[in-house]
UniProtKB/TrEMBL annotation:
Keywords from the named record: Aminotransferase, Pyridoxal phosphate, Transferase
Record GO terms (molecular function): pyridoxal phosphate binding; transaminase activity
Transferase keyword on record: yes
Listed name of the protein: Bacillosamine/Legionaminic acid biosynthesis aminotransferase PglE 4-keto-6-deoxy-N-Acetyl-D-hexosaminyl-(Lipid carrier) aminotransferase
């Protein structure tokens, strides 16, 4: 049998061992079951695609933009100057906080800056540890390094793919200053169990991928002391680039507001008085105007994300050996990125699946590689420990991909993606 090789190369020794030397089980029942279930027309999908000579790729992510966004941006370009300077930003912050049901929102250039400000507001610094789940984009953990603290990498839950409460408990130490949770791919971790184990340690909720998700009627981003959001062009709500930090604590909001504007307070703003050195972490009016239009369409945008997931679920939900994003009791998942985990019996690694789809003009993304496997964090001793213990994150990363989930994707395109995936599963290596 071939080795399963994950999406990460140049890893620390233990990480490389975990991702690169896992052997396949000698099982072939799942491929046989797929053969019986497969769309009878699927075998002609690849040939038809080649005959038609299409060059258009199916995108993995992307926005849905209408005339409303163009109208809002044009109005801001014409009016947000002089006495009206910044009014679109103020309105976006107010409307966003109202949507979440939270007291304060601060618009920033990106979610990375929101996380950076959150950690500064909580006075995290050298000598402190911040616990973060393995499976997330590097931007979740990078601000821990910015403030001079040490990242501690916890494993993920095998069902939600979010922070495991049990692993979190093992990572706690007297130096733990904060915990960062991640609402991965639009899902939400077990925040009640996490809060019980945190025992008062502040929680920063990275809700970058989860606008529109809810847990027990509470919006994603409102489940910790500070929540952060991304409005990158791939996200459900976009401003091109952008982010938001939200909180119900006035002291944290005041600190975030000061630090994002070069350390100035409202009282010293007119006189250019800077009390401390801060950052230029403000959003522009044109970005905010775009975001206001997107927020006005939030139900439509989130609804389309859920529809896309249902298209995939209908076609792949019964395929043996495949697992899609979970549905949890009490949680409204937004399914920002439809993700499939493939049983090892198929002999298809993350990288191989991506290569096969790429040959057929279909864009995919890898399940996010464990943070502790990245060379960027190799200098931390915590990476070595994590690579040894965080088996779930390493396992899933070796055999899972994000399927095309762009907001403008069609049901016909989903059909093609699902047919191709079943062909790849049958062959074990895909078409040549």
């Amino acid at each position: 049998m071939d080795d399963i090789r994950g999406p990460v190369t140049n890893l620390p020794g233990i990480a490389r061992e975990r991702l690169g030397h896992t052997r396949l089980h000698n099982v072939d029942t799942a491929p046989r079951a797929v053969s019986a279930m497969m769309n009878p027309n699927a075998s002609s999908i690849i040939d038809n695609h080649r005959v038609r000579g299409r060059t258009e790729r199916i995108p993995v992510a992307g926005p849905w933009v209408t005339d409303l966004e163009v109208q809002y941006v044009a109005e801001a370009a014409a009016n947000d100057w002089y006495d009206n300077a910044g009014q679109s930003v103020d309105r976006f912050e107010t409307e966003f906080a109202d949507y979440l049901g939270i007291d304060f929102a601060a618009a920033v250039p990106h979610c990375t800056s929101a996380l950076h400000l959150a950690m500064l507001a909580l006075d995290i610094g050298p000598g402190d540890e911040v616990i973060v789940p393995e499976s997330t984009w590097v931007a979740t953990a990078a601000p821990i390094d910015y403030v001079g603290a040490t990242p501690v990498f916890a494993d993920i839950d095998p069902t939600t793919w979010c922070l495991s409460p049990d692993s979190l408990e093992k990572c706690l130490s007297p130096r733990t200053k904060a915990i960062v949770t991640v609402d991965l791919y639009g899902g939400i971790p077990d925040m009640e169990a996490i809060a019980a184990r945190a025992a008062g340690i502040p929680v920063i909720e990275d809700a970058a991928q989860a606008i529109g998700a809810f847990a027990q009627d509470r919006a994603a981003g409102t489940l910790g002391e500070i929540g952060t959001f991304s409005f990158h062009g791939t996200k459900t709500v976009t401003t091109g680039e952008g982010g938001m930090a939200v909180t119900s604590r006035s002291d944290l909001f005041e600190r975030i507001s000061r630090l994002r504007d070069h350390g100035r307070t409202p009282a010293g703003h007119r006189y250019f008085v800077t009390d401390e050195l801060g950052f230029k972490y403000r959003m522009s009016s044109l970005q905010a105007a775009f975001g206001r239009a997107q927020l006005a369409r939030i139900d439509e945008l989130v609804g389309k994300k859920r529809q896309i997931f249902e298209w995939y679920e209908k076609r792949l939900g019964g395929v043996p050996g495949l697992r899609l994003n979970s549905r949890q009791d009490g949680v409204q998942n937004t399914f920002w990125m439809v993700t499939v985990v493939v049983d090892r019996s198929y002999g298809l690694s993350t990288r191989r699946l991506m290569e096969l789809f790429d040959l057929q003009m279909v864009d995919t993304r890898p399940f996010l590689p464990p943070l502790s496997s990245l060379p960027a964090f190799s200098e931390y001793d915590t990476s070595t420990t994590a690579a040894r213990h965080n088996r779930t994150a390493y396992d899933i990363a070796s055999r899972a991909i994000n399927l095309p989930s762009a907001l403008r994707i069609t049901e016909e395109q989903v059909d093609k993606v699902c047919d191709l995936l079943q062909i790849f599963l049958l062959s074990g290596k895909g078409p040549t």
